[in-house]
Amino acid sequence: MGITITEAAAERIRGYMERRGKGVGLRLAVRNTGCSGYAYAIDYADEVGPDDVVFEANGAKLVVDRESLKLLDGTEVDYVREGLNEGFRFNNPNVKATCGCGESFTV
Predict the structure, then answer these.
(1) Closest Cα to residue 62, out of 32, 41, 33, 87?
(2) Which residues pair with 5 in a beta bridge?
(3) Which residues, in sequence order, are bridge partners of residue 90?
(4) Is 35 helix (H, G, I), strand (E, B) or coil?
(5) How far apart are CA 80 and CA 69, in angstroms?
(6) Higher pLDDT, residue 37 or 83
(7) Which domains are assigned to the chain?
(8) Is the pLDDT of residue 73 over 60?
(9) I need a surface site. Which of 45, 62, 73, 79 has the fewest CB within 10 A?
């Protein structure tokens, strides 16, 4: 299945990369943290390692390590604006529950 990137997310990723001026794309990972067990982590990817998988759409790249991919497989990455708030939204079919604050999840 992999990971899909919406046009809105791709536009935001391209913008981040253009402003930064270097790097391969953004790195998406899952970390053990939060009250529900896991949380999404996004950072810049300056290189692609041997355990990484690259997903590309509309000129934007997401780099994901294979361990995180086990929990992210099938996820759609979107970028949304709701009122004054904006950010990446992860539509992850593997999530069983989220915490009350929405920052962490269980699988």
Answers:
(1) 41
(2) 77
(3) 77
(4) coil
(5) 22
(6) 83
(7) 4-106 (2.60.300.12)
(8) yes
(9) 73
> What pairing do the DSSP bridges indicate for beta strands 4-5 and 76-82?
parallel
Sign of the alpha-carbon dihedral angle for 76, 11, 33, 82: negative
Number of residues written out for the chain: 107
Burial 27-46 (b: 16+ CB within 10 A, else e): bbbbeeebebbbbbebeebe
What is the reported pTM?
0.86
Q: Judge contact between 54 and 46, C-beta under 8 A.
A: no
Residue-by-residue DSSP string for 53-107: EEEEETTEEEEEEHHHHHHHTTPEEEEEEETTEEEEEEE-TT--EE-TTSS-EE-
Which amino acid, residue 50?
P
Token reading at 44: 């810049």
- Is residue 9 within 8 A of residue 2, CB to CB? The reply is no
Helix (H) or strand (E) holding 10, with range, is: helix 7-20
Residue 37 DSSP class = S
SS3 29: strand
Q: In what order do the strands lie in the sheet with 76-82?
A: 4-5, 76-82, 85-91
